[in-house]
Every structure is written in structure tokens, then in C-alpha cells.
Amino acid sequence: MIRSMTGFARRELAHAAGTLAWELRTVNHRYLELSLRVPEEFRALESECRAAISASVKRGKVDATLSFRAAPGAGASLDLDTVFLDELLKRAHEVSRRATAHGGEMTPPSALELLRWPGVLKEPQHDRAPLLGAALATLKAALAELGASRESEGERIALMLRTRCGQLEQQVALVRARLPEVRERIRARLEERLGQLTLPAEPNRERFEQELALALARMDGDEELDRLSSHVAETGKTLEAGEPAGRRLDFLMQEFNREANTLSSKSQDAATTRAAVDMKVLIEQMREQVQNIE
Predict the structure, then answer these.
(1) What's the pLDDT tens digit per position in 186-223?
(2) What burial class does residue 182 get, using C-beta atoms within 10 Å of its C-beta: 0-12 exposed, 13-18 middle, 19+ buried?
(3) What is the value of pTM for the model shown?
(4) Dist CA 46 CA 224 (whole Å)
(5) Most buried of 4, 27, 211, 278, CB within 10 angstroms?
């Protein structure tokens, strides 16, 4: 299954403690680059989140963000640390006694001042395991949605590539159909040049045919057409393979381009040149899409 590197997914979950929301965005990149942002209270999940994302996304730049909105009233209660408060009052009384002994005077702290003292009030300890588990489960659901989005886009790209490969084969067939005429034209041109030379003796016809065959092999583009057809077939196989194919397809696009350029440089007539240009346009269209395949 061909998968695009571009995708988006968002999943929310209403939990007793509040609302969890994962937002995932992916774009194309040479390798897997992951940017993960989670609230401080979910830091314990970071390694598991990274592992889950890496298992689902093999290539691309991934931005994953978790947001959490606490439920109304959640965490509103506060516990009084009575042990700490008793110790604080004891120390305050001792400071007041010492101040009086030295002729000073100290106003006892008010109840509000004591409550403001760090450590006197604390949030009740809750078991966060269920909330962390819910966050991880929501991430996996978002990853499944992201995968479906990337596969849908990948199917569209694969269809486009198959269409362009079919058009490329048409251009190859067009040029191949002209090969007999091109070869005959090359032969006539070489024989004409040979006839214009002043030679001391009649040329060796067998040697001439050998040299002509070598010249045709260098100039008619038959080998390039064969390789282009081979690359089209390999592209089709790659699109059907059930594994990430982006790098292999990128390599094939380079090979396509090399053969089309060579064919253009060997061209002996305007029709072949036009076909080579059309091939390069098709190849460039495919290359642009291949850059977005995982």
C-alpha cells in the first residue's frame, strides 16, 4: 500500500478528569523527524508516545501535540498539611518568644498568611494511571486515523503514477515505431558521406556494414527505449509492493530522467525530440509526486 507523507488527524476523548485531544500533522521529509509536545503532567508518557508514533510512521516530519482541559471542579479541592502546619506554628512561636526576650515585638502570623506559606496547602494525590492510559489509547486511535488519511492520499498518488507510466509507454512505443525510418535515414546519411570521400580503392562493404551497425547502436536510442520500458515495469511492481516505496521510486525517477536525456541527445529527427521532451515532462510530474511518498 502506497502511503503519502502528508496527513492530518485529530482525536478527542472526554475523561472524568477532563478532555484529552491529540493533533497529528505530517509532511514530507527525507527521514523520520518527530516533534512531540505534551503537558507537564503527561511527561511520563513521552517515551511510549514516541515508540507508538515511530511504529506507525516510517518516514516524514511529524508534529504531535497533546492538549488537556481539566473538567470543571477537577483539582479544585486542597488538602491541609497539618503536620507541616503544626511545625510551622511551633517555629513561629519560638521566633516570637526569642524576639520578646530581646526586647522586640512580633505580630503573630494571620491564618491567611499561614495558608499562603508554601507547602501548607497541597493538591490531593490522585491515581493518574487511568488518565495516562486514556491519553495513550487516544494517541493510537489518532495514529490509525492518520494512517487512513495517508493511505487515501497515497492511493491518489499511485493512480497518478500509473497513469503517467501508461503515457510514458505510449511515447516509448511512438519512438520505437519510428526506429526503422530513423535507422534508414542514418544509413543513407553515412553512405552519402562515404560517397563524397575520395578513396584510393573500393571500400570494404563488410567492414562498412559492421561500422554502420555500431553507429546505429550508438545513435538510434533502442537501448534507452528498452531501459525506459523496464523502468515502467519496475515502477508498477514497486507500487504493488506492500512496503514503504518512496526511496526506491525516487531512484527510479532518476533513472527515468537519465534515459530520457540520453534519448534526447541521440535524437535524429524532430518527432523523436518532441517525444523525448514529452517524456521528461511526464517524468518531472511523477518525480514531484514521488517526493511525497513514504
Answers:
(1) 777 777 776 666 655 566 667 767 777 776 666 667 88
(2) buried
(3) 0.69
(4) 52
(5) 4
